[in-house]
Every structure is written in C-alpha cells, then in structure tokens.
Amino acid sequence: MSSPVLRRLPVAPEADDALLESLSARFAETAADHDRSGAFPHDNFAALHEHGLIALVAPRVHGGSGASLQDARRVLAAVAYGEPATALILTMTWLQHQAIGRGDSRWPAHLRERVLRDSVRDGALINALRVEPALGSPARGGLPATIAQREGDQWRLSGHKLYTTGIEGLRWLAVWGRTDEASPRVGVFLVPRDAPGVRVIASWDHLGLRASGSHEVVFEDVAIPLDHAADLRAPAAWAPDAGSQTDIDAHATQQVWMTVLLGTLYDAVARAARDWLLGFVNRRAPSGLGAPLATLPRVQENVGEIEALLHSSRVLLDQAAARADAGQPPSATQSGLLKYSVTSHSIRAVELALQLSGNHGLTRQNPLERHYRDVLCSRIHTPQNDAILVNAGKAALVAAA
Fold it and tell me: By the number of CB atoms within 10 A of the CB, which of 10, 32, 153, 374 ranks highest?
C-alpha cells in the first residue's frame, strides 16, 4: 500500500505506520461487501476504538490524544484508503470533538465532558444533524424547521433531518434547530440517539459512500433537559464574520479542519485508484502489443498527470494543516479554494485511471468503479463549488478595486 503520509504520530505512539497499514488493509478487505450491502461498518469502528483512534482528536484533559490536524490527517488517510465510508463517519466525529474540545467552545462544560469521555471510554460517535428537506444546507441561509419548545425543565424537539451520516452507529446527535420563542434563537441541541421519539427512515441508497448510512431522522416530540441546549444564539450571530474575534477565529479553524480532513479522505480514494491502476497497467499485456501497457508513452503520460494531481493535493493539504496547527488557519475563502482544488484533482485522477483501464476499470470485480463512485461524493460537501468560486471571485474583484 502507498502510505499517503509517512510520519510517526507523537501523541499516539501506538498508531505507527505498521498499525495504520494493517488497519487500512483490513478495512479494504471488506470495503466491497460494505459497498454492496450498505451495512454500517461496526467491525471497523471496534478496531479503531481498540487502538484509541476514535478519541484521537479529543483533548488530553478529557482522556483523548489531543492530536493535531497533521496527525489526524495521517490517520484518516490510512482509514480512507481502506474504506472511505468509515473515514467519513470518523471525520464527522472528529470535527465535533475538535469544535467542542477547544478552550473557547460555547458548549457547557458538562456536555463537553460527557461527549468526549464517552468517546474515550466506549468509542461513542457523534455527528451534527443540520440538513432538512425544506432548508437544504444551513450554509445557504434560512432558519431550520426543527423546533424546540420549552416545557417546564425540558425542551421538546420536533423536526426532520436528511443525510445523517453514521446514524446507525451514533450515540450523540448535535441537532441544528430553533426555539419557539417570539425572537427565536438558533443553535445546537444535544440529543441521545436512543431518546424516545427519535425515528430513523432508512432512505440512504446512494451512488457512493454507501456504507456511511446517511439516512433520514425524524424527531417526534423528543424530550431533552434544558441544559442540553449546547449553543443557542440569535440567527445573525451565526454568520461567519459575526461575534468576537474569538468566534471568527474558531470558525476559520473549524473550516480548515473540515476542508483538510474531507480533502484527505477523497485524496486517499484517488490514491487507492492510482495504485490499482499501476498494478493493472504493469500486468496487462495485450497480445497485439507483446508488452505491458505500462510501456506505452500515452499510458506513462497519463499516469504522470495523475502523479502531478496527487502531488499538488498533498502539498496543499500539508500546508493548510501546518498553518492550522500553528494557529494561523487559512481564511474561509482560502479553505474553500483548497476544497475545490483537492476534490477536482481527486476526481480527475480517478477519471484518468478509468480512461486507461477501459472496461476492466468499470467492472464490479475491480475496485476502480467503486473508487469513482466514492470520489464523486466529494462535490456535495459544504461549501459547494458554486459558492466557493463566487466567494473567491468577489474577494479578488474587491481586492483589485
């Protein structure tokens, strides 16, 4: 296996190169089965928890490893190389751990402690539930239709969420909703997955990342304590440039973590596709050619283009992770451009591999067609390409003016 990043992990010495390669190979063995069935990868998460990797990003004070973004990127690359749906679910948990584990988190201390300790002790997973049928992605604006009504010492939560990645394995749901107050507040309500009234609609039947189990969830008058309102603000206070400088910096840090981890995931898928292709063109020797396909200049040129794309992505991701770890995260516009570049590179690399392999690459007996379906999912994550390019274009035009 070609390891995407070859560096020891100082905060978790047990996660050495040999372990990560072993886990990656183990996950790859069952990746096709999970893709066909869409079954949640329980065994993969049991293995990750066994080695303390689910709580890798959780702060040390809560029992985690307190990993940097560079270290998290290294581990995630190995997981995604083997089975990307597992990596996507893991990414969503890590992003929550990073956000609530920061010293400037707005979450109440008792909720932070509960979620992070559960992860350390049990490998408990958490994800944010934000997208709705009418609202779409909250990044596009608008108030959520998920409503919390105050009743005595409880909130009663009702709503409908889409694309709840990993729902079959989650313990905690960070639900984006609004209060029913005259001047509604918007924010996060922490809901236990097993709370009465939480209903899953098994609707996920996607082209790629099929084992992510991104089903729908309906909340039917779900009761949670008042102190499970993790972070409520006036709607305007959620704007990326609103609030204190601390809030702005926290948003920029969260953006680069999301961009780098998701970029690493899809880059790893492209690298797995590249490695399959290299084996194929070195083995495949058509009788009319009398030599492996790898000897053809056209094949060599296309493989060279794939190498250039993957090299560019690695440099961009490494630089962004290093800046974030140094406390100088890229701006939201720069993070968006990073996402656009890396996802475009990843998709193009797999497309080139398909062109070179022909029918062989598209057969279900080989993993390349699965890699292609998975890598196409990179476009759907927030921010989407149109928003990225509009924001970058506006910034460039304003700077020129």
Answer: 374
